[in-house]
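$ ./design --mode recover --in tokens.txt
reading tokens...
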């Protein structure tokens, strides 16, 4: 068809994925339509279904690819705090993947590629927590991991939704996250972040006096 892009069979899957990422980045995953993606990629209406079967299959492929890229990014970062920075950087540079990855209702839960990629990403986060001194991890290393994940994911989500525009005041998100981590966590040995010590308890009231007297 004149004016439309055409693709060889070998790169059709990539073409459809790229078109899907463009739509998700602009309008969110709920806007995806296989028919529209076929038009954008310049292929027949039936072509996307050949590779992905249906919309859920396509979103599962997007999530699997996202987790694989995410795992690679985390594994390259030294220490837990820098893995948090890598988390924020990934969300900034791969917003479409990020939107889909953490919405399990969009995926096929038993997809082997998705399960393998997600396990790699989880292990990369877990190893960052395991690298902390024992005192920094506390009694429950799993909860320490949840705390680190919540900090990075919450910041990344607020960033993508535009809620940090005023607060950042032009600062790079990665630098702002490092500052935030410094406010929330005390510096531990080796440059890694560890939970800050709780504030000292107020002195007990002197006999004959009550608080505020």
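writing sequence...
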């Amino acid at each position: 068809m004149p004016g439309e892009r055409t693709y060889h069979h070998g790169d059709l899957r990539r073409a459809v994925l790229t078109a899907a990422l463009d739509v998700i980045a602009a309008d969110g995953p709920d806007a995806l339509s296989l028919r529209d993606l076929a038009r954008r990629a310049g292929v027949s209406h039936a072509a996307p279904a050949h590779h992905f079967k249906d919309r859920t299959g396509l979103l599962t492929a997007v999530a699997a690819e996202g987790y694989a890229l995410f795992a690679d990014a985390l594994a390259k970062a030294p220490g837990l705090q820098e893995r948090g920075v890598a988390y924020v950087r990934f969300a900034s540079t791969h917003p479409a993947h990020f939107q889909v990855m953490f919405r399990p209702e969009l995926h096929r839960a038993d997809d082997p590629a998705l399960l393998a990629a997600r396990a790699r990403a989880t292990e990369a986060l877990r190893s960052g927590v395991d690298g902390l001194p024992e005192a920094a991890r506390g009694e429950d290393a799993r909860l320490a991991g949840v705390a680190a994940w919540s900090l990075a994911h919450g910041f990344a989500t607020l960033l993508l939704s535009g809620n940090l525009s005023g607060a950042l005041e032009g600062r790079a998100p990665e630098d702002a996250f490092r500052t935030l981590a410094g406010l929330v966590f005390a510096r531990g040995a080796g440059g890694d972040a560890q939970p800050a010590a709780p504030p000292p308890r107020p002195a007990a009231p002197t006999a004959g006096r009550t608080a505020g007297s």
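exit 0
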